[in-house]
Every structure is written in structure tokens, then in C-alpha cells.
Amino acid sequence: MTKLSPQTRDKLKTISTATVATALFKRGLRIQCIQDVHPLAPDQPTLVGEAFTLRYMPAREDLNQLSVFRDRAHPQRKAVEDCPPGAVFVMDSRKDARAASAGSILVTRLMQRGVAGVVTDGGFRDSAEIAKLGFPAYHHRPSAPTNLTLHQAIEINVPIGCGDAPVFPGDVILGDGDGVIVIPAHLADEIADEAFEMTVFEDFVAEEVRKGRSILGLYPATDDRTMVDFAAWRRSTGR
Amino acid sequence: MTKLSPQTRDKLKTISTATVATALFKRGLRIQCIQDVHPLAPDQPTLVGEAFTLRYMPAREDLNQLSVFRDRAHPQRKAVEDCPPGAVFVMDSRKDARAASAGSILVTRLMQRGVAGVVTDGGFRDSAEIAKLGFPAYHHRPSAPTNLTLHQAIEINVPIGCGDAPVFPGDVILGDGDGVIVIPAHLADEIADEAFEMTVFEDFVAEEVRKGRSILGLYPATDDRTMVDFAAWRRSTGR
Amino acid sequence: MTKLSPQTRDKLKTISTATVATALFKRGLRIQCIQDVHPLAPDQPTLVGEAFTLRYMPAREDLNQLSVFRDRAHPQRKAVEDCPPGAVFVMDSRKDARAASAGSILVTRLMQRGVAGVVTDGGFRDSAEIAKLGFPAYHHRPSAPTNLTLHQAIEINVPIGCGDAPVFPGDVILGDGDGVIVIPAHLADEIADEAFEMTVFEDFVAEEVRKGRSILGLYPATDDRTMVDFAAWRRSTGR
Amino acid sequence: MTKLSPQTRDKLKTISTATVATALFKRGLRIQCIQDVHPLAPDQPTLVGEAFTLRYMPAREDLNQLSVFRDRAHPQRKAVEDCPPGAVFVMDSRKDARAASAGSILVTRLMQRGVAGVVTDGGFRDSAEIAKLGFPAYHHRPSAPTNLTLHQAIEINVPIGCGDAPVFPGDVILGDGDGVIVIPAHLADEIADEAFEMTVFEDFVAEEVRKGRSILGLYPATDDRTMVDFAAWRRSTGR
Amino acid sequence: MTKLSPQTRDKLKTISTATVATALFKRGLRIQCIQDVHPLAPDQPTLVGEAFTLRYMPAREDLNQLSVFRDRAHPQRKAVEDCPPGAVFVMDSRKDARAASAGSILVTRLMQRGVAGVVTDGGFRDSAEIAKLGFPAYHHRPSAPTNLTLHQAIEINVPIGCGDAPVFPGDVILGDGDGVIVIPAHLADEIADEAFEMTVFEDFVAEEVRKGRSILGLYPATDDRTMVDFAAWRRSTGR
Amino acid sequence: MTKLSPQTRDKLKTISTATVATALFKRGLRIQCIQDVHPLAPDQPTLVGEAFTLRYMPAREDLNQLSVFRDRAHPQRKAVEDCPPGAVFVMDSRKDARAASAGSILVTRLMQRGVAGVVTDGGFRDSAEIAKLGFPAYHHRPSAPTNLTLHQAIEINVPIGCGDAPVFPGDVILGDGDGVIVIPAHLADEIADEAFEMTVFEDFVAEEVRKGRSILGLYPATDDRTMVDFAAWRRSTGR
């Protein structure tokens, strides 16, 4: 399924969600950040990939006994086996972390299958184990109860909400220390290009600021000298 | 589509959501109440009908310009025209009342089409007008902004969450002054029968309590005399 | 049990919670208002009486089957029968209105027993019926599920929290359109006296303001003329 | 101070907040609704006027004894006396209704002074009395404690937030049953004109829908016949 | 007081809260997780012990001056000295972390007395110091203000709510990276046995998944081969 | 501008927010803690300095395009350049972390300018980079979107609310692992002195408790022996 080009994927790995947020903001897209999700490990790799989604609804008790997992077609288990390598598994848990969205076994399986990472606006169980996997994983907070307690997996790869952001299958997901942002699929290449260039400039600015330069005239570059200096910096650093 | 029998519908119209909640509780169903939704008018009729659902996701700005309503297949407008007479139009607005789920024109159209009522876990705009329709309508609170501001209608008649309750198409919806409850379709007849009988007993109890009788032994009927008195009351009242 | 004197009770019936809140504020008591509770009927009588409390804890499922009510010593039912006439039945529902604190039968029983009123920081079921009783009742919002769903009655007449306010058995409860306030028992007489006098002055101020007088110098009475006018007004109105 | 023309004021009195919200949405203004505020009385008049603001900050205890009101320059009292006739008194209470923003005496004074109405994203004390004034007043919920408990009035007529909406002094405020919306001052005339025309069309649509006409092709008017019918309706109704 | 057997205690130390949550879920116990509490240190030992409880109510200002701690019978201080070695000190702070439940001196005292750990659904002050103790401690978030600011210790070792879970004195508490779960006392041995066996199977599954095996047929073990492989694995690993 | 004496600054660097909270509590100041803000790095230095404030209001979309930063007088950028060395930059973000209050470039600039630290009750973007600066920084949680998305900087160095605490320019800010507390300017010296002495006693108590001594009679020192021992400890430790 993956239409995300290797070039764009590689570029995005070097770009922050903050920079992408600004690039989307310029285009009138203001709510693409998945709100209030956090990496399980502070040093986990950057998350990049196309969204493959799972939608949960509230779990009706009679339909959510443990035996339901014996059905190989159960949407949660099927989705874990169907999520394409390179994709990001994104779950709509209705921002409810009172029960888990998944645990370490399913997350390990996703990792083994070559999936790029996992996001829920609820919580993971076995969170300490997941944190050790070196696999990009984001949630609101840890949560021990089985998903059946409150969540019924109901649809695979449909448009969902996650942390108040719209997520369409195939949208490009980027995650770093600030959380996770959703780039509409048709904008992925252009956002990656633009944000890549913005990042070069921001790196220059950061270096200047660390040297003690004022932000006035520098950021944004309203001073003519700023762009002159930036050009020189690009030449000297080869960026 | 309506499989809800006229008898069950009529019975439910005389039963409270509280009594149904207890009957569902006996069966291990504890989260069937749509939480924190309120009738728009204090004197609106009891709401009974089968659920016909609309799912909203967060609105991506570029996909939710006013022009989208020019498309006759737009899910919100299509759903309003497709909802069967006698059904209840239930919207999953992700408990977000910061923008409207619908307004008085669509609600009036539903009413004209013979729909039984309307429920959202978000809010209605034109709420004062809706309140005057004499049509059963429930929401969390009034909300003036157009739904496009935050809600994108995405799927018609799929299983949804509404106010943290699971709602499957065809489930039987009951609403009164306490709010709205969802009866799983396969239980509708049996719950209606049982709750109808419970209501007769509760009416008897209420009358006794108003006369000054203690609840001990009466409610529940652990005193033998209670059932004797109840039998006599049924005979005398013809219930 | 009632130590609240008839005189203080009568005075309090003419005083607003707002005025009492100010009198308590002067004494360093800032959190005596039960937050976010509302009268079930807009025109219900003023609530005055000493607190008789019931504490709920979260309901463990195995201990909260419907059969528990067959036990006459069940704390919820026992409390309803034990609450003294003239007292106010105050429930600590941990601000959780997802299940009911009580319903119309128990509230009617309290009313029949001469109890002065009822308060919960959760919700009542059968709320429309309770609203018709003409009985002072306050909750956060209506809630259909039986209390067993989430609340287990565990202790009678112990100190509790209700809507983030401390409530000790015997504290004097006052409720009006703004909600409910808790007057520490030992302060009841002095607060009633002081608030009664404050109310006379506020009535004078309100009358003056309605006539078009500025609040500056009038409220508070920093202008000498204010107290002169007030004295004249008291004479002329006999207050 | 009032620059709001009588024509625009009169037009706005016939227009709903929902219609204005849509007109603002067309211009990219999506967060102008003051969220989660409610009219104190269901039948209070429509609120229209220019914003005159008061900003509260959290009350430091040593600076907020009752004696502060003896200072005629106290910002809350001064603001009440300074708010121009025809303006709307809008308070930034940081969405905190645990203490009052004002009470019936101050609101009555505002009314006497010819102020058009009052809005807070906190709560009013003496709310039942305010509700009887026939004066447009909006808050989140009733709240008995004096404002000094949690709110310190700190600035008059500066830009504020109210219910998550931006409010600049002079912005035009419109309130109805759905709540309150803020129209940027420079857009007031054009929004009033546009919304007035939209209202005429919506009234036509509502009438057609009440007659049983489908919304498809009618709302929005993608059917040619709709505009023909609308033109005829305008002629026949004189609108 | 400790009736928790050393065998069960030891077993529980090797079991996750997630596995216990599933074992309780099988028995219809769905709300035993203390919601939204977190370990103070990521590497603190597993928490196991019987619950010894302290209940806080909202602090009335006149009853909560610093001098109250001069009373050796003050419930907070008494509870810290009375909590049995091996027990877990669990505080009902009404999910309010705006003031502390306790600080490092009391927590150190508990540790010195041989108490197994400490849990509050509020917050600890001196949290950085507590985090260095190597003592199992859980709270919602750090909080500097003294408990007297908002919390009055009122009862020792009564049934409480903690993070929306029911906690009875003597219930067995288990805490790990996902948070804290409450095992009803009478189920402790059987849950420990069952969860211990479940853990063996989950460890086998985790190993297989890490090798690349699909979860279908493996987890749950609907494939006959799974149980054959598991039996072999147990033999080879001696578990 | 700094009136904070070097002596008081140095003393405060050795004192915890918890101890200061107690010293303020003694003086009736109960809400000086900025609620629910957290250090970006666990090992960042203690934060001490006088408050220099920035107030945000909700961002109206037409006034918050990226181009606004080209104005050198834009309040956010101007404030960053104006904040005095040694001061703490405190932002009122209305407790809304859905968009950033600032990012690593501005925070680095503050650090370079000798500012003592930075606090917002919203969130920072580039939070992982800020965490590496070794600069005291506090927020509610990371947030990638540019501040323009929701926050408009509107006033510099006015009294604000931050995390429900009142902050006046010049108030002394102290931050440690428990969060941030605000000391009214006129109390800074006396609080520092008192808290410094309290800290000596608490260190003695902590040492005794670590040795196994009971808190009864020790903390508070109701036992005569405690003060004798404390005096000896001070002599022997030279404190």
C-alpha cells in the first residue's frame, strides 16, 4: 500500500513535528496534532509512516468476553496482522485511557511485522516493556485493564479521530518528543520539502542564538543581513 | 427497516430510563446510558425508536468548507433524508459540543419525515427553536457554530459511541427526563416486558410510600405482606 | 437530634446562600459551597436543616448485585429510614453522576418522613418526578443507572466531602437557586444573625439601585449619607 | 463610545448566533463563540452591544479582603459605573465558576445605567434574582461565593479571553438561546447585512421544510427551482 | 495483621498488573485499577501488600491550621505510625492533587517501619526526594502545598475509593509501571496462582512473537500446535 | 529591575517549593502554587528569580498569521528581548496546552540573555531540545503547534494568572521537582529566611527518621527532647 516515497520518509525523519505544524498552519490546517499523546520511551526513534487505522467503540459487556479473541477475524487481532510494513498503526480509543488499547505482545508483533510505529489516544498496558522495545509508540498514559473492559474494535482502516485530530488512512504520521502530527497524504511531499528547508534555516537560527544574537531581525528574517549570513552558513556547512 | 414491534414501542413509552437501566443492569449491561445528554424541552414527548446512526470525525479544514453541502451525497444531509420513519437519529459527536451537530432545519426535516427523535452527545444550534418543536431531542448543550467547524460526517448507520455508550444500528433507544438509554436490539422485547412489570410494582410502591409506608420490606419486597398487598392493589386498580 | 433552633431555621429561610457565603468568607471559610449542584425544580422551597450524611465509595461489582437491597441494614436504605425529620440528607457521591445516588421512591420516603431536603454531588434518577414533589433536592445532573452500578453506600453520618465542600454531621445546610452552602454547626446562629442583618441592608441597596442610585458610596456604605438613608428606610419599612 | 450603528444593532436583534457563526466561518473565524455560557432566563431578550471588558486574575488572599470594595477605584465597581450605555459588560473569569463574577446588585446597576447586557465565563450569584430582571445575562452556572474568593478584578477594557473566545473592546456581542458570539468590530456591519439576508433565506427554507419539502436541493439551494421559489416567497411575504 | 501469605506475595512480585486485570475481568471485576496514578521513579520495585487506608475529606480552614499536627492522635500522623509492616498505605485524596497527600518525611517513616509502599490518587510533595528512596510510591502528580491546604485526614483503615477503584482494608495491592490494581482479599491466592500461570504462557507467547510468529492461533491458543509448543517450551525452560 | 537580593536568591536555591508552600500557608496564602506544571528535564537546576510576565489571549485567526512575527514590536518577541537577566519569564497561556507557548529558539534566547528560567501553564514545542539546555523550564506538557494557532501575546509584564495562581510582576518565583511557587515580592526575604530555618530542621528530622525515629514528638517537635537533639545536631553539623 505504501505510497510514501523513501525520499519523503527520510526527510521527515530529520524534521520536527513543530516545524511540520507550522507548515500545515500556513495552509490553514490547525488541528492536525494528536493532542496529549506521549512517547513511551524518551529516546525512542522518530516515527514516520502512513496511517493504518483501527476504530474502537465503547465495549458492550455481552459482546466483549475474553473468548472473542478466539475469533481470528476479531478486528483488533486482524488489524495487527494486516497493518502493512512501514505503516503506522493508529487507534481511535476515544481519548479514553481507563482501559488499554493494546499491550506488549501485540506491539511486539507489529514491530516484528515491520510496522513503523503505533499510536493511541488511550493507553498501553505493559507500558514498561513496550518502552524497552526501541519501537516508536505513543499513548496518553499507561493503563493495565484489557481493552475489552471499555473498547470494542469495530472497524479497520476507516477515517478516525485520534486525540481530536482527523486521521485518514494513508495520511502521513510523524512523531517525536512533542507528540504526533498528521500530514494529509496529498501534502506529504510538499510539506516534507518545505519543512526540510525550514529546518535548515531554524538550525542556522539556533546556532546564531546560541552565539548570543538577538531574535529580532533574525527570526523571522526581517533583517537583510540575516539572509546574507544564512547563505554564507549554508555554503560553509554544505547544507 | 423497523423491526421494533408496535407493542414493544407502546410499552416502552410508559417506562422510564431508570427502570430500563435496572433491567439491563440485571443482565450485566452497565454502560448503556448515553451520559450527560439532556432534553431540549422539559415537556417533550418520550423518545422511543430504533437507532439510525451518523458518525462524525474531527473536521479537517480543507475538507469542510461550506460548499461541501452542495453535494447531495454529503453524509450529514444524506443521513437526514435516509433515516427511516420511526427510527431515532443518533449522532456520535465525540462528546464535543464546541460546534453543533445539527440545527433546527435538519431537525425539522427529520420530524417531518416521521423520524421518532434525535440524539447527539454534542450540541444543537437553534436550540430554542428545536425546543419548541414538540419533538424529542437530546444533546449535551446548545452550540452555535456550524458542524463543519469541528465535525465531519463520515459514516452512516455504523456502530458508534454516543456519550460513552455503545450504539449499534437497530438498537432500541429510550429517552425521558433523565436522558437516553440504549437497549440492545435482541433484548428489546424482553426488557420492555420486564420493565413494564417493574413499573407496575414501582407505581404501587410509590403510592404506598406517599401514604407513609416504610421502604423496608416494601422495596424490595422482602416482607411477605408486600406481595399480598401488591396483588390486592393490582386487582383493585386493574393493572 | 436537631439542635438547630427554630429561630435560626426561620431566619435562614429568608437568607441567600450568597449572603451566607460572604459571612463565612469574613471568617476565613472559603470552600463551604457545594460546587456545581443545582435544584431539580426552579421553584422548589429553600432548603434548611442539619446535615445527615451518607458516604458512597466506588461499587465493587460482586458486592453490588440487586439482591443487596434485600438486606434491611443496607446503608442506603437504613440511612433513608434513619435520617431525622428536619435534617438534610447529604450524599458524598464523589462528584460522579454516571450512576444515580437515589431515585424518586427514596426521595419521596425522605419527604414523607419529614426530612428537610436532599443533596448529592452526583445525580438523581426519576429526576422529573422528584422535580414535581415540591421538595428541596439538589444534584449535579439527572442519571438513570441504579446507584449499584458505580456507588456502594458504606457509612452513615460520618464527615464527608460533597462537591468539594467539607460536610460534618450536624452542619447546617442552606440551599437556594445558586446551590447549596454548608454552615459549620457552631457558627449557625451567629451566621444566621449576621446574614439576616446583611440581607436587610442588601434589600435597601437593591431598592436604591433600582431607583437609579450609583453603587459607589452605597455598596459598601462608604458614604455617610448611605447609613442615614438606611436608618430612615428601616424606620419606614419597619425592618 | 458606541460606534455600533442603530441599523446594525436592530438587524442583529433579529439574527441568530448560529447564522452569525456561519457568516464568520466563511471568513475563517472559527472560535468567536463564547463556549459553554447560558442565558440566566430562557425568555430574556436578545443581547446586542459592543464589548466593554473586565479582566479577573486569581485572587491573592491578602489583596482580596472585603474591605477592598471600600475603594471607589476598585476595578470591579469602577467598571460597573464606567461601562457605557448600550455596551455589553464582558468578564474574563478564566472559565472558573467556583466563585461568582458578580451578583444581582451590580447587574441591576448595569441595567439601570442602560448597559445592554452582561456575560461571564464564570458564574453569577443571586442568579434567580438576575433571571427575573428581564436583562440579557449569560454565565456558565450559578455560584454563591463572593468574587473575592477566587477572582481579583485587575484591568478594565483590555482584550480578554471569555469562554475560549477572543474579545476586544468594541467587538460586537450577540447573544441568544444558543449562547454568545463575538463579532470583530470592523466586520459588524457586513456580518449583520449578510446574516440578515441569510436569515431571510433560512426562514423560507424552514417554512418549506415544515411543509414537507426535502432539504436536498433546497438547503443549500443547488436546485434552480429553489431560488425561483425563494424569489416568489420574498415577493409574497414582502421580505 | 498481614494474612497475605509469603507465597502469594512472592508470586505477585513476578506478575504484572495487566495480567491481574485480565484475571479479575474474567470474574466480572472491571474497575479494580486505581486510575491515573504513576510510579514516582521509573525503576522502583514492584509494590505488593495488603491495603491499610487513610481517608481524606476536604479541609475546613478553621480545623486545619499547622498546629493540628501537634496532636499525636491526628489521623494522618497516627496512620503513618499504625500502618503494619508489609502493608501498603493507600490514601483516598478524592483525586485532588492540588495539595499534597504527604511528603518525604512521612514516606521515609513508612519505609523505615517496613511498610511495603504508598499510594495516593492525589500528589506527593518532595517528590524528587521520594523518587530516590527506592520505595514503591504512586501518585497522580507532584504537589507542593501541605495537605492541610485541601485535605483533612478523617478516618483510618475504612473502605475508600482511590482513583475510582474500591479499596477495602486488607485488599491486596499490586503496583508496577502501568500503575496500581486492587485484588479483593478473598481472591488474592487464586488470582496470584492464575496470573502466575498466565504469565508463564505470556512469556512463551512473547518469545514466539519476538521470533516472528503470528498472534493468530497463538494468542489466544486456538491452534492445537500452540499448546504442544508451549508444553515443550515449559519442559525446556523448566517453568 | 531586580530587587531580589543575592542573599535571598541564594537562600531560595537551597529551599524546596514544599517548604515555601508551608511558610505561605502560615500567612493565609493558599493558592500560590502554579498547578500542574512540570520541569522539562528531571535534573534541571532550581529556578529562582523575579517574575516578568507575558499574557496570552485566545488567538483570533485574522490577527495571527505567521507574518505578525515580522513586527519587531510583537509582544511575544519583544517580551523575550525585554525580560531582564535574572528574572523568570512567566506566561499566562490560560492552561491551554493545545498550542505551544514558545519553542527552543526563544527559550535559548532567554537563556543567552541571562534570564533565570521560563514557566508556562501551557506547553513548549521542541520540548526535547529545551530539556537538554540545562535551563530551568516548566510547562504542562509538550505541544507542537505554533502559538499563533491558539494564543495571541497581548500584554507584557502585567499581573496574570498562571496555573490558577496569581502572579504579579516582581513576585519571586521558585521552581523544583514539585513544580513552581509564587512568593509575593514583599514577603520574599522573610519567607526565604523562615523557609531556610525550616529546611535545617526538616533536614534534621529526615536524618532522624532515616535512623528509625518515630515522627510522633519529632515532627512537629512536641517532645522537649526533639529541640534538645536538634540543638546538638546543629552544633555538630555546623548548621
Oligomer: homohexamer
What is the first-to-last residue Cα distance of chain A? 33 Å
* Number of distinct beta strands of chain A: 13
The largest β sheet of chain A comes out as: 9 strands, mixed
Structural class of the helices, strands and pairings of chain A? alpha/beta
Helices and strands of chain A, in order, run as HHEEEHEEHEEHEEEEEEHH
The gross shape of chain A turns out to be elongated
The residue fraction in helices of chain A comes out at: 25-40%
What is the C-alpha radius of gyration of chain A, as a whole number of Å?
Answer: 20 Å
In the predicted model, the low-confidence regions of chain A spanning at least 5 consecutive residues are: none
Largest interface, Cβ cutoff 8 Å: A-E, 30 and 32 residues
Averaging pLDDT over every residue of chain A, what do you get? 97
Number of helices of chain A: 7
Strand content of chain A: 15-25%
